[in-house]
Alpha/beta hydrolase family protein DUF900 (Lacibacter cauensis), 487 residues
Amino acid sequence: MFQKKKGTKNFYLSIEECILFKTSTLLVPKLLLYNLFFLVICSDFVKGQQTVCDQTELCLSIIGEKYSESEKKILLDNWNDFSGENLNDQFPIDKNIKTRVISLRFDGIGCIYPSFINDTAYRALFLNNQKDQRDYTKLSFFDSYYSDTVDGKFRKALPGILSENLVQTIVGKRESIERNESGAKEIYAFRKTWNSYYLPEIDRAFKAQIQSSPVKYVFFFIHGFNVPYALAHLQGNRMFKEIIENLPKSISVDEVLFVRVFWPALSEKKSDFMNNRCDITNNKLKVHKSKAYYFGTNRAYLAGNTLNNIIAKFPTEVSIQIMTHSFGSVVASSTILCPKPKISERQQAYPLNSELLKAFKESEDLSKHQLHFFMNAAGMPGVSTFSKINQQKNQNHYFYIGHNRKDKTLLKAFIPLIRFPTTKNSSSLGCNYRKEVSKVKHLFAREMLSDHFYEARTSNDKEHDFFCYVQQPQYRQFLITYLHSLK
């Protein structure tokens, strides 16, 4: 039964009401558009029940009616990328359930956050001109470490981890790097040196947590594109709570470690949720002109590449679950799959991409690690992502793909009747465009890995929002199926 809620865009009709409405208005020319509209709605309904999502109601349920004004102020202060404050104490997964949580944060080129950056002390440095997506190194420690506007303050706050020769080389090429004409080797040299210095403390933190209980299951959650920092935290809370509530009885929460993964995927959403208002819809993004898709994709690749190094240190007997929404699937898949097939030969020659692919050649072998991927509304192509799936390398890896052929964001259906899902970073897998899911199934079958790939339609709604998906009965059933496969 569809339900009508007064004052909202939600509407629900029974199948009988749908049929009655269509037949009673069929011969009225003035109602032709309404006929077509309800024809679409009713035909979708008979294929499966759904919860129709309204953006205002979603915002109210997520933030507006859930938190006090003081709590909302904390979320507002930490809305943008790189705000720095760890929100886990103020906004835990569940105040009534004891859970163990680690947060991982990556900058714009896949550098890990050091543990000492856990407040807002460096906010002004990171958020300087943060909306400009024309700079490859924007929202990175590289950018802050060498920016002329910093006057050395940030550099003095960090240990001297880089050689003076590298420092002088990068500073000398600063202008050309910002124009993306050169400097790729210096950028990646910085990244490699930085991570070699700061990843060990992350490895020690995981080791301490895993050995303490001990931990048998690690659940990562990776947010998608254009998700502000504070909102990504709340998404993680909801994802982890869904996991806790639906774990099979054979798995105890005491055996689980939850990991929040943050990466700078833009924060261009409204943050109007103070004083009884609630609007967190997208701002207008000039992504085509600003190279936001292109640079955002490389950010996802690099975050996944660094995450590969972190997971490699885990004991192989630990079961690793990587849960994603939308573009987060690009980060997740990059932990085990090189993105080379997704980059054209012409683009591979581009210095920044060339250095990126060199970084992936140095990835750790995770073939012995138990990895399970739950990728919902996957904002990535299917065939090119999984073209190199291999029985020998991926025998211990399992994939659960949630898709929705009506998702307007994945379809890139921003103009009525026109769809562009394969342009500006293809999202054809998540919307099952031209039977992309079946094509990926064939790739797994070819490698005798058919039982390593599972898929389901997880929504009948056009809305792409994470919180809309988790309300759908199809999504929840697929999640339960996934979790019970871990027994």
